[in-house]
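Is this the right way to post structure tokens for a design question? Let me know if I should format differently. Anyway, here goes:
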């Protein structure tokens, strides 16, 4: 165990973190960079091909690349149970942080697991059925066996207690931060560059950024946008940006969009274009049915976007009074979107409020909350595992 004169040595297991800059990747990168900035004593286990990435993120950390076989999911899952505890012993870790839901059953040291959301327990039909069974089992194990649980919102904490019976006094809330260097108000030149790339050339648009999966509610967004814009003389386009997904209803909803309305499916947008894309939209519409935190909402707010989202789960914790809200059905989305399109002054007010509110969400603040969770885990483990 660490002495009172030094911070605990933390081993962060990044072997399951994809390099796709998705939400898990942004969480891990933001947290690791902030922990390093606070002077935390860090070790990082990672995929061999990701070693340079983590050395760049935390130059003072001890980065331990795993075997090449970890590129295969089955091998990684087996290694997490046996190889990861050995790495923890080798680097002299005082606490092991798993930034996803998997946990070694016999870790041999205090463990902190981040559980990002439990929406698949509440609405399993809105998740990929091929992954649901394993993730539910692993999440239950983590909730039961972890020394401490970190969650990104009070809503997830409450759902963990309600749905999985997790002890509330074992859960720490640590809000995500936002990279204020990457997500910021864009310049007019950045807005123009994105608009031209999308083929819009200054034409107004409603933006969506995210995966096309059922809980993101994209089909109802499309239907609501059609209802809100069909009768307008100069209707804004709808731009669907982000990674793919498995929501079969998206194509069905797009198939009946009237010919005079324009949909742009941009796919993945480079990181550097996101401030112009989000900050340049009339409205950033993210009417999700369920989130663990709502990082895209926060990132759109940081870019000075006028955000329309729902009151589901933690989204009000993120948006507060700085965003507009809707129910997730097409009629409600149409009404809320129409109200925003008809009120340019209100859009400006919301954008200003959103940008200001986003400043309160920092990775440094999140890292401090994580450090407190590590200390609590060490103390609790010492109390329950007397030497």
């Amino acid at each position: 165990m660490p002495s009172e004169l030094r911070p605990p040595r933390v081993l962060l297991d990044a072997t399951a973190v994809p390099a796709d800059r998705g939400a898990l990747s942004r969480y891990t990168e933001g947290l690791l960079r902030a922990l390093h900035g606070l002077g935390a004593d860090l070790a990082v286990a990672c995929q061999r091909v990701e070693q340079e990435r983590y050395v760049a993120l935390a130059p003072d950390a001890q980065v331990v690349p795993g075997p090449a076989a970890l590129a295969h999911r089955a091998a990684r899952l087996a290694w997490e149970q046996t190889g990861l505890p050995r790495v923890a012993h080798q680097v002299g870790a005082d606490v092991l942080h798993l930034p996803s839901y998997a946990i070694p059953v016999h870790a041999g040291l205090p463990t902190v697991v981040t559980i990002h959301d439990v929406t698949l327990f509440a609405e399993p039909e809105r998740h990929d059925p091929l992954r649901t069974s394993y993730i539910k089992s692993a999440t239950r194990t983590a909730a039961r066996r972890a020394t401490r649980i970190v969650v990104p919102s009070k809503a997830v904490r409450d759902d963990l207690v309600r749905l999985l019976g997790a002890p509330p006094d074992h859960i720490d809330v640590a809000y995500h931060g936002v990279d204020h260097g990457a997500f910021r108000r864009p310049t007019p030149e950045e807005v123009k560059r994105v608009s031209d790339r999308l083929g819009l050339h200054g034409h107004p648009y409603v933006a969506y950024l995210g995966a096309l999966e059922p809980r993101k509610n994209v089909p109802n967004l499309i239907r609501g946008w059609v209802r809100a814009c069909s009768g307008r003389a100069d209707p804004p386009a709808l731009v669907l940006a982000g990674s793919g997904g498995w929501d079969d209803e998206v194509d069905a909803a797009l198939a009946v969009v009237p010919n005079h309305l324009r949909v742009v499916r941009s796919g993945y947008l480079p990181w550097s274009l996101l401030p112009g894309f989000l900050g340049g939209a009339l409205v950033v519409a993210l009417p999700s049915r369920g989130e663990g935190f709502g990082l895209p909402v926060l990132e759109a707010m940081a870019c000075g976007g006028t955000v329309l989202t729902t009151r589901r789960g933690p989204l009000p914790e993120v948006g507060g009074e700085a965003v507009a809200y809707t129910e997730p059905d097409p009629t409600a989305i149409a009404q809320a979107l129409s109200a925003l399109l008809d009120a340019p002054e209100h859009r400006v007010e919301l954008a200003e409020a959103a940008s200001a509110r986003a400043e309160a969400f920092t990775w440094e603040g999140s890292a401090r909350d994580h450090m407190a969770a590590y200390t609590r885990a060490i103390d609790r483990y010492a109390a329950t595992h007397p030497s």
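Format looks fine. Someone answered above. Worth noting: The chain has a mean pLDDT of 93. The first strand starts at residue 9 and ends at 13.
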